[in-house]
Design a protein that fits this description.
Strand content: under 5%
Number of helices: 10
Helix content: over 70%
Order of helices and strands: HHHHHHHHHH
Amino acid sequence: MSKNYSPKEKAIFEAVIELFEEGADLNNLTVAEITGKAGIGKGTAYEYFSDKEEMIAKALFYNSENLCRQVYNGVCKEKDLQSKVNYVLLKMEQQISKANCILRLVMMMSENSMVSKRMREMVNETLSAKAAAINIIKKVLEDEFTDRETPSEDLMEYLALCIYSRIMCYAMILKDDKFNSEDSRSIMRKLVTDGICRDVKAV
């Protein structure tokens, strides 16, 4: 369940996302830059957040949660798995900057990432985009198995992780300039969609 954030908290979140979209670096981003973009004072920001790391981690999760919710609402209107997967991938293309935020949040979970230990701790405390995305994948899978035997919990977890991995691979593909054309993206989209459908069918 999403927390009800105040307008000032949301302004901070939106400012962080805008700065990321403009190419800001995680490690060098300052509270002054964030609050300046948000149009609020530094003192006011500290009424809601303990430090820069908390602002960034919560902003990334807020963005990720919202994007996942929007995607799920759209997916529910599609009729079959292939259409649902294709919808998700197209949505990622349309909102590539927001999808990149999810990817960055996932990368921040890595012990080898260049962000600070404090940042990783905040991401862990705030929960991960991975958890939000996998929960949505599981909901979609539950719909797919309404007319046949539902796999075991372990198998469903494995399948959700496989699908999540393929979607994250597509997010990385979108960051590569080689796949800027609609033709190349269409080919990759079909490969990813077919792969996911095969995974589900094989269970």
